[in-house]
Amino acid sequence: MTLTSFFILSRSDSISTQRIKILSAEFTLPENFNIKSFIKNVIVYTFIIELLGALVLFFQFKHLGVNTPLWSGFFHSVSAFATAGFSLYSDSLMGFQNNAVICITIAILCYLGSIGFIVPMDIYKCIKGEKKEITLTSKIIILITLLICLVGTVIYTLDMNSSILEAFFQIASASTTAGFNSINLANLSNAVLFVMIFVMIIGASPSGTGGGIKTTTISALLGVINSVKDGHPDNITFLKKKIPPNRVMTAVANATTYVLLLAVSTTLVCFFDTHSFLELCFETTSALGTVGLSLGITSELSDWAKIILTVTMFLGRVGPLTLGIAFFQQKYNSKVISQKEDIAV
Questions:
Q1: Are 226 and 251 contacting, i.e. CB atoms less than 8 angstroms apart?
Q2: C-alpha distances in angstroms, 76 versus 71, 148, 185, 187, 280?
Q3: How far apart, in whole angstroms, are the C-alpha atoms of residue 142 and residue 120?
Q4: How many CA atoms lie within 13 A of 39 on its CB side?
């Protein structure tokens, strides 16, 4: 959708209203966002970041004497930015676990892809002087992403007594839903595995390249909790800014659907396989968030478990998009409305 829209815009200055609605749903953009300018900037931003990442990785791979360093640098740069997690090496990036340049570069690329295209566009406009400050969406994305990175890295480092580099890289890989690993995940403690499951569920950010329920969804849910606690449930706020009711409802629907789907998928996988619950929960969470991390049991799973995980990966990718498009349908049927009645919660 992004590429075809870019080609259409390169030939003319207009795209169809329906295509704009679908793109807005796919990128979950705020209202009144210029989708035409956004599409062009997405292409440019992607090209520049992946090119810079490829150059850094190329020189480092060449310094280490890796075969075909240019191809390896290019491949891993694209894979990291797209949070695909594919590696040219059978052990992912375990052979470079102590190489700060490679690990930090890959992690930064993962973050630049997962935070979405809204943030860099906001920052760029502020630098150019087109606006005084970044949007609430960008503030939320940066704040939640930093908190997850910091808290996750600290817990990982303390519990595993590992290096900060190792902890930072694995938390980055899980929270951005990239799926690279620099160590054998089967050796991690239960506490760290649970933390990784939690950050995989949260995942990346709107308009980004990762999966999960998104950082902004978490902010809306936290806003609901705080507003109910303070006695004003009809006025949902976060960072002292009011969140539109339709966005709150979308966040609640998205999170609820995601958790229910995770519960059903995990139950089915457990029904058809005999590995431990934590192992199967980790695999299912990784599949639903399109992360790709594994504890090394994927090849040992039963055929039915593999089929369920495959379907789960597909649903994890198209689910948020489908929900977003449904949000734009705006279909109103008065016959569906029943008499209003309160419930106990």
A1: no
A2: 9, 24, 20, 25, 28
A3: 11
A4: 22
If DSSP states are collapsed to H, E and C, what string results for the chain? Answer: CHHHHHHHHHHCCCCCHHHHHHHHHHHCCCCCCCHHHHHHHHHHHHHHHHHHHHHHHHHHHHHCCCCCHHHHHHHHHHHHHCCCCCCCCCCCCHHHCCCHHHHHHHHHHHHHHHCCCHHHHHHHHHHHCCCCCCCHHHHHHHHHHHHHHHHHHHHHHHHHCCCHHHHHHHHHHHHCCCCCCCCCHHHCCHHHHHHHHHHHHHCCCCCCCCCCCCHHHHHHHHHHHHHHHCCCCCCCEECCEECCHHHHHHHHHHHHHHHHHHHHHHHHHHHHCCCCHHHHHHHHHHHHCCCCCCCCCHHHCCHHHHHHHHHHHHHHHHHHHHHHHHHCCCCCCHHHCCCCCCCCC
pLDDT, tens digit (0-9, with 9 covering 90-100), for 324-342: 555 555 554 445 555 666 6
Q: Write the burial class of residue 231 (CB in 10 Å: 0-12 exposed, 13-18 middle, 19+ buried).
A: exposed
Cα(266)–Cα(312) distance, rounded to whole angstroms?
10
156, two tokens: 């990982």
d(CA 83, CA 153): 19
Task: Give φ, ψ of 237 to 5 degrees.
Answer: -130, 155
Q: What is the mean pLDDT of residues 123-132?
A: 87
- The residue whose two tokens read 């609820």 is 256
Q: Is 84 exposed, middle or buried (0-12, 13-18, 19+ CB in 10 A)?
A: buried
| Token couple for 314 | 């597909």
Token pair 């089929």: residue:
307
Q: Residue 223 and residue 136: Cα distance in Å, rounded?
A: 13
Distances (CA, A) of 264 to 58, 252, 308, 309: 43, 18, 10, 11
pTM here is 0.87
Greatest CA separation found in the chain? 72
pLDDT digits (tens, 9 = 90+) for 60-87: 999 999 999 999 999 999 999 999 999 9
